[in-house]
Amino acid sequence: MGSFSFFLSFLCVFFVTSYAQLTENFYDQTCPRLPNIVRREVKRAIETDIRAGAKLIRFHFHDCFVQGCDGSVLLEDPPGFETELNGLGNLGIQGIEIIDAIKAAVEIECPGVVSCADILAQASKDSVDVQGGPSWRVLYGRRDSRTANKTGADNLPSPFENLDPLVKKFADVGLNETDLVALSGAHTFGRSRCVFFSGRLSNFSGSGQPDPTLDPTYRQELLSACTSQDTRVNFDPTTPDKFDKNYFTNLRANKGLLQSDQVLHSTQGAKTVEIVRLMALKQETFFRQFRLSMIKMGNIKPLTGSQGEIRRNCRRVNDLGSETGHDVM
User: Fold this and answer.
1) N or C: less crowded end of the chain, CB within 10 Å?
2) Active site residue: 60, 62, 265, 326, which one?
3) One domain, residues 128 and 177
4) What's the CA gap between 110 and 247, in Å, rounded?
5) Is the domain of 74 the same as that of 173?
6) In this structure, is residue 248 part of a structural domain?
7) Is residue 140 situated within a structural domain?
8) Residue 211 counted as an annotated binding residue
9) Whole-number Å distance between alpha carbons of 128 and 108
10) DSSP letter for each residue of 267-312
11) Are the CB atoms for 314 and 71 separated by under 8 Å?
């Protein structure tokens, strides 16, 4: 089953990549040092903030799930639109200043050439492999949107959801159960505020009891850690700052932090249970699928060609009355 799912994922990657016309060599002539610049800035950010990598990959995920991978999540004041940053799914999202720093470094080298959407894709890859995870060749050619979609951001996958709505939200953007499990594996690093899981500790779904799928010893650890709803707790209690397969090992031990994590393994009869088992057994199985799913996610409805623009400032659309970013192909 696992091998068949991987094969299907590969076919989907090939199809979507061909359709979107994103390529590895998009900036070879116009910004050849792009990967080096972004990696340098990502490493610098992680050295000063161990959560930086998790912040960056979350931005890429939340960008792609709302009107495609177009940098719309970064806009603070799109004319005539309400920002996605105010959407329910983005409450408390952090790290935009890291993206600002990366963009500034890229603009010094290649002004007006590289989109913010492509920077998010490259920074996410670097965030993973700098912290011990897999690497892959990033595909480029995305352009930046001049619009945002707060309604879409209100309906991002939620930490409070059961499996069926999660599967549907992933399917709505062309991702399957294997992609859902693999991409959820990004919770092998980073932190969550207690507000996003405290309901599991004592009054799950209004029952007056803790979530029965939560390990009792782990529950006590979380109760002790959560001195306030804003306290941040490691997603992975074993290797919190390393990108590895322990996320899946934790799920099998009923130590998934969020409800949306644990349901991947605790939903009886679900396809995801076997996928979790396979990824927990062998790290390379997880890494291989994570690469494929990240590439596949990065190809969700990108703007290409003459669509959109190349933003000079990731938080603002370009002023069409002045010089704007230009095409690179």
Assistant:
1) N
2) 62
3) no
4) 38
5) no
6) yes
7) yes
8) no
9) 25
10) STT-HHHHHHHHHHH-HHHHHHHHHHHHHHHTTSS-B-TTSSB--S
11) yes
The tens-digit pLDDT sequence of the chain (329 residues) is 444 444 444 444 444 434 458 999 999 999 999 999 999 999 999 999 999 999 999 999 999 999 999 999 999 977 888 999 999 999 889 999 999 999 999 999 999 999 999 999 999 999 999 999 999 999 999 999 999 999 999 999 999 999 999 999 999 999 999 999 999 999 999 999 999 999 999 999 989 999 999 999 999 999 999 999 999 999 999 999 999 999 999 999 999 999 999 999 999 999 999 999 999 999 999 999 999 999 999 999 999 999 999 999 999 999 876 444 443 33
Do 152 and 173 belong to one domain?
Answer: no
Q: For residues 174 and 144, state if they share a domain.
A: no
**Cα gap 253→262, rounded to integer Å:** 10
What the block records as the tokens of 189 is: 């690093």
Exposure string for 292-311, b = 16+ CB within 10 A, e = fewer: bbbbbbbbbbbbbeeebbbb
Domain count, the chain: 2
154 in a known ligand binding site: no
**Residue 163 to residue 320: CA distance in whole angstroms:** 44
Contact 326, 115 (CB under 8 A): no
Does residue 12 fall inside a structural domain? no
Q: Are residues 31 and 118 in the same domain?
A: yes
Nearest-CA neighbor of 5 among 265, 293, 252?
293
Residue 215 assigned as binding residue: no
62 has catalytic annotation: yes
